[in-house]
Give the backbone structure.
Amino acid sequence: MSLILAFETSCDDTSVALVDTDYRVRCNLISTQPDHAAFGGVLPELASRLHLKNILYLTEAALNQSGTSWDDISALAVSVNPGLIGSLIVGLSFAKSLAWSRGKPLVTVNHMLAHIFANFIDHPDIEPPFLALVVSGGHTELVHFTDYTRFAVLGKTLDDAAGETFDKTAKLLGLGYPGGPVIDRLAQSGDPAFVPFPRGLNRKDNFNFSYSGLKTSVLTYVSQQDTAFLELHRADIAASVQQAIIDPLIAKTLAVAAQYRIKTILLAGGVAANTALRSQLAAKAGQLGAGLHYPSLDLCMDNAAMVAAAAIPKFRAGLFAGLEVNAFSAKGTKLL
Ligand code: KG4
Ligand code: ZN
């Protein structure tokens, strides 16, 4: 059993975690940045500065709270893409300087893979092959794993991501940022059939997603209603938008699962916190004889424990990064 010290700074959450190679979490500290709320979205420059302010303090706190010394740590892990480049560089530079000064190997991790591997923290016994549906603020992907480090992206969004659609429609409805949690809560008392919003790329043989049509449709619909009507039917509209977002996610996940005879499905990313998506996908996967796993709510959000979890297969395989390694913002699930 070895111990990994991991860092996550790809967007607006600074997180430091200590996780052993049996996926047991010793600590997972997260510092969120409420400062962005006033801007209606994440301000990249501000995010980088706050990471820089928080990361050393969080690292000291993680070591002290868990009673861990540098001798106990076998490797460092850090997410290096995708994300805001300034934010990623803060985490990577910090991890590199510690790797160099403490003489520890460095494992670089793709942030979307980290979301997928968050599932292993609660379920270390998950085995390939499995299918992952990754749904976050920037990504909507179906990734087929034939082994822990071998995978192919079978479907992805052609325009906007599912989380972004939650966020943008919430903004239109005056519900604030981030939109997912508010829409999720409101939708629980609304009628999902109230507005028949369009489902993108409806064909069964197409595993890609498209949400730009839905976004335009919500914009048109909202602009045609008066304020009193919108106020009265906020929950119904939220439920209708949410159902239009999750229907294609469920349909395409099941279509891929059926075609590739998948028995294990992993839900991952911020949108994996969505109550309706979790319950409806679990029910439909069950009908197909497949099991669905999703991370606990706190592990769906950006955190460093998931970065450590994704680093474990690379650590076991000795896939370490040199100090010349760089961060990059390009979207997608890629193994580094
Ligand atoms: O993975 P994540 O924390 O950050 C990215 O890497 O993008 O995901 C954030 C996204 C946001 O779009 C947020 O609105 C969405 O996850 N989200 C939700 C819920 N909680 C967070 N979407 C739907 N339902 C939720 N309960
Ligand atoms: Zn994320």
In short: The mean pLDDT is 94.
